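User: quick one, sequence for these tokens?
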């Protein structure tokens, strides 16, 4: 039977888009405490079912698909620009396609304004009216209001009019930054994106006998399967090692490994890879919050996903992308593996020197490159020791020289030295786990 928490989530998920949600009403409708209702609503917000807006409340929004994650709802715009909703609250759940800055004559402005747009403009009431009639929402900058008839029109058309105290340039920058962040999130491949779903997963139940394992093994040529109870919850894992010398009539429940390592579909593929490498496992059951099986992910699935990520063009640049794109092979250096690197303003701390986090990225990237020249595959840093000798100033060029001290089938040890004008400014020693492709 589903818990009260899950019953509330299912109830929220069944509500129509745009429906306003309150803790008190949920508690009354489902006969639960307000504390339980509050926690479930917060969980629903984390899952993307609802959005909470100051001075408006919590509303049911359309759950975004990953391929459309870069699109924002008007509800999210309110939060981003710290806005106040003047009208059209019923349309806050809608998604905007693009925003238009109204810094031109009215006639020209309307040529660029279409349905699904957000017009960012000052206190130009006629522009507010025409934008709404064209099917666009309006964001008024400078903290200005609009006329009452425009607010009524917004309510009728269910298109929000939002007022923000920020200027036009600032709100456009804030919205652009939010879209940019969403693009970065879009690139992160999650376990749920690459798993083998439940309907295609081969599994055993606690009531099955070992003979079933032999039957599946011959069909699939695999030897590791999740074991489920009557509620489809993961009760254990059975492998080829477990059935050695065991009678085919033995119940699976007696020889399986109980409380196996599982993963959530919401974790990144990189996190799954780390778990599988460190624990030495080939198949990972993927479960929901109730430990019900959603599917499985194999080490091969993880490696294919990691390789796919590396081949994809970056749409939204992270700090790590900015750092690694600065790497240039140093042809002048006598050493075989040496890289030059320019320190840009984004890589510095508040006093204008290279930040610790960026330095860590530099030595990790250098280690990655030098190990790939020795052995194909990906690496996961297990331990890193960093020594800072001198501060590195903004706009300087540094030389990064990694050296492989030791390498094996599944591990590597790399020493990295960083020079500026021939002087050592930092050192690092990395121990890494290697993942064969």
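Assistant:
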């Amino acid at each position: 039977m589903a818990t009260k928490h899950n019953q509330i989530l299912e109830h929220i998920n069944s509500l129509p888009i745009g429906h306003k949600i309150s803790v008190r009403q949920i508690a009354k409708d489902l006969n639960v405490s307000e504390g339980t209702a509050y926690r479930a609503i917060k969980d629903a917000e984390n899952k993307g079912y609802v959005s909470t807006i100051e001075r408006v409340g919590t509303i049911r929004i359309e759950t975004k698909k990953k391929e459309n994650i870069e699109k924002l709802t008007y509800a999210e715009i309110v939060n981003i620009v710290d806005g106040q909703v003047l009208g059209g609250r019923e349309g806050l759940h809608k998604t905007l396609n693009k925003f238009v800055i109204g810094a031109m004559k009215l006639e020209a402005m309307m040529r660029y304004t279409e349905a699904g747009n957000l017009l960012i403009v000052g206190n130009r009431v006629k522009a507010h009216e025409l934008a709404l009639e064209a099917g666009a929402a309006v964001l008024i900058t400078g903290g200005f209001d609009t006329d009452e008839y425009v607010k009524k029109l917004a309510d009728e058309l269910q298109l929000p009019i939002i007022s923000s105290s920020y200027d036009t340039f600032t709100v456009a920058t804030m919205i652009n930054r939010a879209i940019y962040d969403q693009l970065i999130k879009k690139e992160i491949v999650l376990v749920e994106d690459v798993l083998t779903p439940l309907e295609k997963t081969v599994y055993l139940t606690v009531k099955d006998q070992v003979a079933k394992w032999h039957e599946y093994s011959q069909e699939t040529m695999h030897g590791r399967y999740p074991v489920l109870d009557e509620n489809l919850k993961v009760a254990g894992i059975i492998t080829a090692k477990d059935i050695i010398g065991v009678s085919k009539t033995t119940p699976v429940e007696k020889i399986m490994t109980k409380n196996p390592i599982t993963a959530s579909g919401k974790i990144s593929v990189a996190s799954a890879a780390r778990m599988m490498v460190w624990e030495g496992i080939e198949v990972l059951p993927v479960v929901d919050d109730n430990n019900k099986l959603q599917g499985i992910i194999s080490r091969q699935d993880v490696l294919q996903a990691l390789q796919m990520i590396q081949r994809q063009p970056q749409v939204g640049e992270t700090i790590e992308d900015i750092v690694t794109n600065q790497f240039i092979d140093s042809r002048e250096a006598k050493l075989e593996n040496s890289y030059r690197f320019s320190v840009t303003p984004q890589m510095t701390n508040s006093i204008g020197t290279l930040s610790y986090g960026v330095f860590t990225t530099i030595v990790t990237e250098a280690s990655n490159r030098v190990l790939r020249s020795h052995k194909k595959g990906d690496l996961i840093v297990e331990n890193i020791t960093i020594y800072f000798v001198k501060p590195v100033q903004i706009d300087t060029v540094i030389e990064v020289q990694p050296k492989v001290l030791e390498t094996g089938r599944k591990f590597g040890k790399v020493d990295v030295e960083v020079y500026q004008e021939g002087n050592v400014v930092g050192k690092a020693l990395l121990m890494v786990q290697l993942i064969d492709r």
